Amino acid sequence: MPTQILIFSLLPTILFLVAALVLLVIRGKNERRKKRGLNIPPGTMGWPFIGETFSFMRTHSCTSLGHYLEDRKSRYGKIFRSHIFGKPTIVSLDAEFNRFVLLNDGKLFEPCFPKSVEAVLGKNAMLLLSGEIHSRMKTLCLTFMSIGRLRTRFLIDVESSVTQTLDSWKENSPFPAQEEVCKVAFNLMVKNIMSMNPGEPETEKVRRAYAKFMKGVLAIPLNLPWSSFRKALQSRSCILKAIEELMEKRVHEVEMGTDEIGEEDLMGYVLKNSTLNAEEFGDLLLGLLFGGHETSTTAMTLIIYFLHDCPTAVQQLREEHLRIIKAKRERGEPKALTWDDYKQMEFTQCVISEALRLGSVIRFVHRKATTDVQFKGYDIPSGWSIIPVFAAAHLDPSMYEDPEKFNPWRWQGDSLNTARIEYYMPFGQGARNCAGLELAKLEFAVFLHHLVLNFDWEVAEPDSPLTYAFPEFPKGLPIKVRRLSLV
């Protein structure tokens, strides 16, 4: 017992000495680089061991860069060094450098996410892959989510998922909008990935597991019983087990001659056109759910939030979608939306673009320099982490007048300019841009079509989106709706 007491009493001192030693090693490396004549961007490495991680992770309004980034930009400029997530890091608020990083992905840079993300998503998640294996995975997804399939299959499923959820909304009874749009995105994804239908016991089991899974993707990696990280790992195992059982059932039915492997869902497509095993497909699925479901849910919630304070935009949206409905009636067509209807939603796309700009659903990514890189007179040492912050360009007053104001008309006609197009990155850029971007835009447009034609809404409780990596509404954006009779 006395020995244990002595150890515990010395533990803070030991930890401090270890942290100090790590800091000395890092500073020693920096000094050696300076002696070699490298011009590393200015900045500070923060506290021993933890660096500036907690300052970087502090939540703030999603329509701003937050105190940490604004403070460092005023001190050091748009490109500065720090020590984040245990690694020496270059943080970039420079639109040109961010685009340079994305366009040279796989050449000068590669993905470098925190270990906790890899542990939860899996090593085969497309978000974490690079090189040839990433290209193969992305080609698989792009082929499955082709424009032809969007026209013939996904459009029908998107509209079905949207109307099924919106039909359940009750008037004058507050509910969290984020939870409701989550159902739209989740049901669409699992239907097209594994042919799982909404409301079924197995679907609900996976949905509950996925909710816990998401809370741990970006959590502090403490593998303790009560931690979000441990719960996420357990949920990952639950989801992978469900996937493995579904794959085995599908293969067994084929072997017994009671069914054949079709290509109606991604699982069938993968079984027929690739050699991925259950774990690899599971990692692919979790990565797609993370990239597709979470971003879609956030984007649709932001659209509801921003439109609430912009009735002029809501009215113009209604006029656009009523014209589409009226034209369909005159032609004697059914109510169901067609691809031609979707392509007429021009102002709708302006609203979507503005919500993605102001909300910056994907605010930054993690990369690592695979070789020494020079940019604008700065040297980026090989092995250093790079964090390109896309939100910096989206909120830059030199590119957007009143950048913190929701203004969908800024995306019309002559108001566009080259800088905006090049540095607008809601879906990334280059070889690693989002494989599901066309599906996402289709999903948002169909959701808006049915929302504005069938409902008025108001915020039931004050709630604003806060963000670190993704925007999130602390209360889930409680709203009350009133049904309309426009169609």
From TrEMBL:
The chain crosses the membrane at residues 6-26. Heme binds at residue 434. GO terms for cellular component: membrane. Gene3D superfamilies: Cytochrome P450 (1.10.630.10). Keywords: Heme, Iron, Membrane, Metal-binding, Monooxygenase, Oxidoreductase, Transmembrane, Transmembrane helix. Belongs to the cytochrome P450 family. This is Cholesterol 16beta,22S-hydroxylase. It comes from Ornithogalum saundersiae.
